[in-house]
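Before going further, it is useful to explain how the protein records used in this thesis are read. An example of such a record is reproduced below.

***
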Amino acid sequence: MSIIGRSINFGLVIILCLTIAGTAGATLFYQESVEGLDTRNSQLQSQNEQLRSDLKEARSDLEQARERMQELNESLETARGDVSQVSGNLQQTEQQLSETQTELANTKQDLQAAERRANSLESEVQNLQSVNQNLRSEVDDLQSEAEDLRNEVSNLEGQVSDLESEVSSLESENEQLENENDLLRDRLNDACSAIEGDKPPACR
């Protein structure tokens, strides 16, 4: 009975030791698990804060992207309006280009006619230059002849002046002779009047 009692007590002691050891191991395991969970929880909270910050930044970027998209849509509408206006301007420009090309063709024809007229005028100018050169030569000859005539006229004027002086001298001499002749006639008449009887032929 004592042997059985001892065996039972020893078994209980072993069971009790195993139970205590299991409880301590479980406690240590749970303690480590709790510490791991706390660490993981801290990491998750940190990641959560980072994710919230990233989410806030992403929402800000999304809002900016929406605003940018709105601006792009407005720019697109404006660009479409500009394209429509440019298309209208392009059609108008094409029409103006066509009109300008037609005007250019007409201008080329006018230019060709003007060139022909210019060539004709150039030939006429050359002819006139030749005539002008001939006239200049003729003018030079006439000027030389006129100079000779002026010299001749100057000589003739000198001769006329000499002749006028001679005529004036002769007129003075003639007047003097007429005065002397009148005086002689008066004396002859007086002498004839003084003669009585037959008078000489000079008194007749």
Observations:
- The mean pLDDT is 80.
